[in-house]
Amino acid sequence: MNGEDVRDLLAMKSTAAYAVAGFFILACLVCASATLTGVSAGWPEYAAVLVLSAAVILILRAPGDPPSARSTALMTASGPVAAALVFAVLPVPLTGSLQTWPLGMSVVIYTFMCVRGRTLAAWVGLALSISVAIGWATLTGQGPLYGLSFSAINVAPLLMSTFFAFTIRPLAAAIFELRKQSTVRIASRAAAAAVLQERDARLASLDALARPLLQRIADGPDLTEEEILACVLLEAELRDSLRARGLVRPDLARAARSARARGVEVMMLDDRAPAELNDDVRERIVAATSSALDAAEAGAVTVRLLPPGRPVAATILLDDLGDGAHRVEYDHTGHIRR
Predict the structure, then answer these.
(1) Which of 33, 41, 106, 202 gets the highest tally of CB atoms within 10 A of its CB?
(2) Containing structural domain, residue 158
(3) What total of structural domains would you count in the chain?
């Protein structure tokens, strides 16, 4: 089922399922304790309880859909093994029909094996369990038909569970596919809503920043030198928001604006997209960049986040037009790389 597990659909991982398994184990224990009359030894009865208990726990816990071949083999063998343990110590004739309890209890295991996609193995297990009953009846002189008479009745519930499995499993596959499609649609809608929200936020920010200057240009007269500088700084900030989204932080934006106002050429680039830096690393690099911009009086400062996969996470290139360029590299912890 493409990685889906029918246990999720039938709540087989829930507390209630384990409670039912507990009642099953308790029922096995009661059957074993109530049928000790005439048996040659008691411990095989309780050994059979352990075998069936392990099988029912495995039904609930075995991963995969269907379960692995190893888990399937263990569950398949639980019925005939439990039956062999009990029939080996039964009296002849039986003192009560309940003494053949492993046959009925093992059918519960095989029923859920059908649901979990191991129908053929379930029928093999039932056939082996019936064979144990027939073999016991034959060896004790009661005839094979006698063994078949009280064991073949377990075919009916397994037959019903087989039809149920052939119905529920295709439906489960369809349900899982619908769930997957629904998840994809929800994710697409969420992504579209996030894009629209981001667009609206950018438009609102652009409107707040650019509209006054654009209105001033439209109304005239000619811009003053201060207003021209404001336009230049605004254009640079808008460019940073597009080309260096991973670096845009209030403190860094303030430092960049102040440096540009002093005549420093500032260029910021984010080449890591869509990969992102750890928040702590980013804050270290942003703080170092802000300090470099605050100290710059002239020349150029270029800040770049490098693509992922390189030994250097970010670089700051300082060119003060005096002593030449000075390059500082930062590793993936946000510290200066020596």
Answers:
(1) 106
(2) 6-181
(3) 2
